[in-house]
Structure to design on (185 residues):
């Protein structure tokens, strides 16, 4: 017999996070390119971000045809959050460049994010952003071998804090609720 699932957060009722959800209103439009293997992952933080961010769109796939809407975004105000050699530190982004940003997030393990980037060479049309002052990783239930690892939700939260100077505690609240439920159950 299957467990009852919450219709809003899509977690089992026993681990529902809805009482920790509140909206974060922002100007930045977030586009997530999600690797298909992340869709059903119990620890996927994009699902949590979707509960809090009205300005997020998630596209699932690997191939260029899966991301046509993202491909056609204007390059002058669209950035890929990815730490490559040409990346601009988000903290030093000029104020004029912070107006109405489209932010692309690659969701998956580092290996899968790299694969998404390589399979979609059109991403090179967009400038890349990275973090100079990497916040501490709070996502303790998923381990990474890389010291510069954040969950997708944490990367979104920090980006919004820097770009818009807004309070993103609501994102961390829902993340903490999910982690607490995961550890308890």
């Amino acid at each position: 017999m299957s467990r009852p699932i919450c219709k809003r957060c899509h977690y089992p009722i026993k681990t529902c996070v809805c009482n920790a959800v509140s909206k974060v209103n922002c100007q930045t439009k977030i586009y997530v390119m999600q690797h298909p293997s992340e869709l059903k992952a119990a620890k996927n933080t994009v699902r949590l971000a979707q509960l809090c961010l009205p300005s997020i769109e998630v596209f699932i796939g690997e191939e260029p045809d899966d991301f046509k809407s993202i491909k056609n975004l204007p390059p002058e105000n669209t950035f890929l959050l990815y730490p490559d050699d040409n990346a601009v530190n988000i903290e030093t982004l000029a104020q004029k460049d912070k107006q109405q940003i489209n932010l692309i997030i690659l969701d998956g393990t580092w290996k899968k994010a790299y694969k998404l980037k390589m399979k979609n060479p059109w991403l090179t049309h967009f400038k890349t952003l990275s973090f100079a002052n990497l916040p501490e990783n709070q996502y303790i239930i998923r381990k990474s071998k890389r010291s510069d690892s954040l969950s997708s939700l944490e990367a979104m939260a920090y980006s919004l804090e820097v770009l818009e100077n807004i309070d993103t505690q609501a994102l961390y609240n829902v993340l903490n609720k999910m982690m607490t439920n995961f550890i308890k159950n």
